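tool=predict chain=A
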Amino acid sequence: MKKKVLIVVILVIVLVAIGVGVYFGVNQKDNSSKNKKEVASSSNETEPIPEDVEEPVTYLEYPDKNEYERQILERYSNNNDFKVIPVSREKFKGYLVAIYEPERVHAVVTSKRGYSGEYVDQMVADNNGLVGINAGGFADADFNGDGSNPSGITITKNTMIERTRYGNSRGGIVGFDSNNRLILEDLDSDSVVSRGIRDCVSFSPFLVVNGETKSIPSGGGAFQSNGRTARSAIGQREDGIVLLLCVDGDRTKGEGAKLSEITEIMKNYGAVNVSDLDGGTSCQLVVGDRMINDPTSLNGEHRSRPVATAFILEKDDENNGDMTAVN
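tool=predict ok
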């Protein structure tokens, strides 16, 4: 009898022990799962950004600005030299580059002057540049000019390269004075010197001068105001930021920009002075070591051509321009 009672007591103790073990085991598993969820939630909310990773710029930095202003003023976190902004309309697409230090923008001339022009990417490489765009005109009979000599007054870093004014309507100078302001005026060589023009090319028409949109005679030819073609332009905002604009166009398909559309885009981005630059197959916008636009020839071939001059953004000692900024 005593033996049976002892066996029953032992069985009861074993069953109780098993029950207690199961209870605490399940409870511990639930608590462990709960703790993991809490840790994960806490990690998502409070995990700091590593010190060596910069936060992307957000629109919250300029909440009172319109979309165009935010695009200009909110710089890439990894590039304090320039910003590339894609632009497009129904008949064209292209790029606008905002340059934040106008004192670093210079006019440059083909190193083969008198013999041939150069592609803009070569001018950028030869002149310690980050960004470049084709600039002034050159002799171009039947669109077969070699770009060997710039047409009209041309100055690069206070050195007069060409003193003769254009003999036609494209007689204005497009360039920067000693105060780094974009000057758009019809000046002779003596006036350019007395006005302290440090860098310039010659071209026209001027689209906006001192905030006033200029009246441009209408015309339907490819390079006339109502014609559609690839176009390049330069402008400057009141705050000094320089704007370079290059849009693609294929005349065989009726694609490209009208001058009025170039004016509209530049004014949207705050430009108070704007001039047209050489267009068509000459259009070249270079960032780093590559051309990012897609120019076409008169018959629709996808190619560019040597030109006489370009405006470039020169590197500085603290350059940290990130070429990956362009998609």
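Helices lie at 2-46, 67-73, 120-126, 189-194, 259-268. DSSP finds five helices and 17 strands in the chain.
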